[in-house]
């Protein structure tokens, strides 16, 4: 198989770089954000986005991390109690890793409102899944802590190690 670049043949070994997630336009992110914003019990939500300064010898690539949601039941909660992996009031879908099948197995949802939980998990998947990285980087920049409220979005510099 002949490889070429703009019709010019390429000779030699090509080392493929990181495979990036196909990027989606901002229009596909809007309904996911709006579904969370439309929930009257959601006060605010956000995430951190940055390029690590060091990554144990691996390439340092931009990413989004730590999606969190504050509900009316969470007024006094610290932000680390609001991250989606262990949120204190949205509920959870518990599960365990099955060593025999080598797969994660989930149990039924536990919590006050399963639909709300899944809307928030969809938001987490959208912003942390990589498909909107270009949109988020263009909108809010690198090394940013993002807080979204109905009346506006706050961007603060995120200082990380």
In short, what is this structure?
With 161 residues, the chain is α+β, with helices and mostly antiparallel strands. The protein has helices at residues 26-37, 114-128, 133-140, and strands at residues 3-5, 8-10, 42-50, 63-71, 95-98, 103-106, 144-149, 152-157. The protein has one domain.
What does the secondary structure layout of this molecule look like, with pairings?
Blueprint: E1 3-5, E2 8-10, H1 26-37, E3 42-50, E4 63-71, E5 95-98, E6 103-106, H2 114-128, H3 133-140, E7 144-149, E8 152-157
Low-pLDDT runs of 5+ residues are none
**Could you describe the largest sheet, including whether it forms a barrel?**
4 strands, antiparallel
Beta content: 25-35%
Mean pLDDT level: 92
Give the SSE string.
EEHEEEEHHEE
Protein model, in words:
The relative contact order is 0.20. The protein starts with a strand and ends with a strand. Strands 4-3-7-8 form a four-stranded antiparallel beta sheet, with helices on one face. Strands 1-2 form a two-stranded antiparallel sheet. It is α+β, with helices and mostly antiparallel strands and 161 residues long. The chain has three helices and eight strands; from the N terminus they run E-E-H-E-E-E-E-H-H-E-E. The longest helix is centred in the last third of the chain and has 15 residues, at 114-128. The model has no long low-confidence stretch (mean pLDDT 92). Helix 1 (26-37) runs antiparallel to helix 2. It has one domain. Helix content is 22%, strand content 27%. A hairpin with a 2-residue loop joins strand 1 (3-5) and strand 2. The chain has helices spanning 26-37, 114-128, 133-140; strands spanning 3-5, 8-10, 42-50, 63-71, 95-98, 103-106, 144-149, 152-157.
